[in-house]
Amino acid sequence: KAKTNIGYQKTIIKEIGKAFEKEGDFVANERSKQVAAHFYEQALIQFINAECSSAEINQIKTKIRKANNYAVKNEFGRVPIEMSIPIEVVDNALSKYTNKELFAVIQILVADPNGMISYESTEKKIKQEIHPINPFSVTALRKGIKIAKVDTIEERIKHEVIQTMVPCIEFSIRVFLDKIFDIFLYNKSLFVDELRKYIIDSDFIDDNRIKTIEHSVKLYLNKDYISSMHLIVFQIEAILKKILHSIEGETFNYKSKKMTELTLGTIISKLLKHQKVNTDLLRYIEVNLTDQRGKNLRNDIAHGNRNFKEFNKYDNQLLIYLLMKLAALKSHDL
User: Which of 33, 57, 115, 249 would give a disulfide with 67, using CB separation of 3.0 to 4.6 Å?
Assistant: First the structure.
């Protein structure tokens, strides 16, 4: 009879959680904070199932974050990556932009494969290098919490692709993209008008959105990267939503008697399934805007997770570049 009593069951579950927490405390002092975080996570699961108080649940969450932060700082090995590229290669890639009108520079940049790290090419390379039998599971951490547990070979491949792309993106936006934007900055009095001429023909950007984009670009030109990035990132989301709407109609979910707008992650996933928008472009946006293992710009900006110094011209220019790429899409191609 006691075994069927819900209160009794919750007490047992809570005690199991406490046992995990106790083991975590022991391991944290004797062996490893990273291992301790695993035990704390198991304790958290039990506390949630036992419907423990918010104070008890918050306490174990704090232990998880502190243990992971300590592990990343003191227990994980750091492998420095030195990236370089011959100056002749850079000069050759930039030569096509020399002595061109500003509007032509925008057109060339949008069409230039050097501007975007290819997800599909990176994936192909990773598939050739990764062992088909994956005996290891990988835990991805971000700001002290576990954001992904990679167990299957498919998950491992995607994880490795993102981990490979991110430093390449950082290198690209500083070495290549920044040089192109120097041209725009040199002609800053013309840039907004020329950009307007380029995006005005877009099938997915209306006049009201163009005004918002113009304002955000002016903020960028005035080095107000915080305001500019807050505006541009959500214009990108709105454009992708409009593209999806042109393919499958209304873009909201109906669940539990409520209607909610689709998240950007869901919008990208749906567009990928339709295979009408360039896969590399969608994956590039995903890695930069919504994947927590990537740059995660959209979510970090939306949830206030970026500090002052992280609002920089390189990421601002990346967002403007993504907007240019989306402006080039035509409805008749979808």
Answer: 33
Q: Which of 328, 33, 86, 15 is nearest to 201 (CA)?
A: 328
**What's the rounded Cα separation, in Å, for the pair 287 and 139?**
18
For residue 147, count other CB atoms closer than 10 A to its CB: 13
pLDDT tens across 41-78, in order? 999 999 999 999 999 999 999 999 999 999 888 888 76
261: alpha, beta or left? (left if phi > 0; alpha if psi -120 to 50): beta
Low-confidence ranges of the chain (pLDDT < 50): 1
Nearest-angstrom CA–CA distance, 146 and 320 = 31
Place of tokens 């399934």: 273
Query: Closest Cα to residue 234, out of 266, 209, 268?
Result: 209
Q: How far is CA 308 from CA 40, 166, 218, 221, 301, in A?
A: 32, 21, 19, 18, 11
Q: Using CA atoms, how far apart are residues 184 and 324, in angstroms rounded to an integer?
A: 13
User: How would you class 220 by CB atoms within 10 Å of its CB: exposed for 0-12, middle for 13-18, buried for 19 or more?
Assistant: buried
Position 12 scores a pLDDT of 93
Tell me the pLDDT tens digit for each residue of 243-278: 999 999 988 888 888 899 999 999 999 999 999 999
